[in-house]
Amino acid sequence: MTKLIELVAPGVALLQPYLPGKPVEELEREHGLTNALKLASNENPHGPSPKSVVAMRDALDGVNYYPDGYLLTEKLAQRLGCDETCITLGNGSNDVLDMIARVFLTPQNNAVFSKHAFAVYPIATRAASAQPKVAPALTSDHPVAPYGHDLEAMRRAVDPQTRIVFIANPNNPTGTWLEMNAIKSFVNDLPGHVIAVLDLAYVEYIEHLPFDVGVEWLLDCPNLVITRTFSKIYGLAGARIGYSISSPEIADYLNRVRHPFNANSLAIVAAQAALDDDGFVAESRHDNSAGMLTWQRACGEMGIEYIPSKGNFITIDLAAPAMPVYESMLRQGVIVRPVANYGLPHHLRITIGRQQDNERAIAALKQALG
Ligand SMILES: *Cc1c(COP(=O)(O)O)cnc(C)c1O
């Protein structure tokens, strides 16, 4: 009898599913706890913008109609200074990453990304039955971006079968950041048969960057796709909404594989309202910077090394297997993220919380370390 695994597409047979952070309700159920704290999935600890909540409430009565993303697309195009035909909405930016993989990858192709890069890149690549090609990362003693993307190594990994290079800036789970000029040179230097995907999921956390960062590069670089999300600083991770900015031609190809109505009507209005709440974004960025300092100081006091992060999370190096510390923190009701699946078995990734969350998690970490 034919084994089912022999019928599965080759990439799917090799695919390791995404491991989400543990949900609060699950921990509370398992350990009989209340008041668990989740700092495991880089969600905005301030919740969504109140303006998004009002917009979603107002839109509830219209959910009998299929969604229309036109107004959100128009608003994004205005804010980004690009044409509306450059924007593709996704059910989260992971949806757009998957569309890009389905458009450009076949079983004969590979996609290049760095070691310790975002877990969705190998998943999208395997789902298209193409080959992931992992470039070595910068070393742990690199002065600026330890464990971060080594652009020269990524360039060397590109071969004639490569169709996509994924770059996350800042990267998750390392939080490492490369200067945009270095990324620009890297992208401009790629051969014409390669699509550069620049994932800017955390870029809003970086101070003094214009909203339209990178968009002008599209003029010189027709093979560039930028992805952005409302899941992080905009506080809409559960609503599932993200987008890409690309040439109209690439957007046309993405649209061919896009599921109809992939972005839902509540997420669309929530995102529109979030774009109008600059105060919420500024406050989220400011509190994140303050919380990052709290964590850096606490790590300094405890003698714990960490990877310098520009995101809304900090990845700490326990210099020993991290699982016992993770589990001890769980028993204390604090959920953080083990990152062994990212090749970092001695590290834990911790989302920056509100000040009281940070204090509670730091106390739990101290307790766990005994
Ligand atoms: C969180 C994250 C995303 C966002 O995914 P969504 O599908 O938009 O929620 C994208 N890229 C990276 C690197 C991330 O960490």
Mean pLDDT: 97
| Bound ligands | pyridoxal-5'-phosphate
Helix content: 40-55%
Low-confidence stretches: none
The CA-CA distance between the termini, in Å, is 55 Å
Q: How big a fraction of the residues is strand? A: 15-25%
What is the approximate shape?
globular
What's the tally of helices?
15
Helix/strand-derived category reads alpha/beta
Q: Main β-sheet, in a few words?
A: 7 strands, mixed
- Oligomeric category: single chain
Using the CA coordinates, give the radius of gyration: 20 Å
Characterise the protein shown here.
The longest helix is centred in the C-terminal third of the chain and has 25 residues. It contains 15 helices and 13 strands. The protein binds pyridoxal-5'-phosphate. Pyridoxal-5'-phosphate (PLP) binds next to α6.
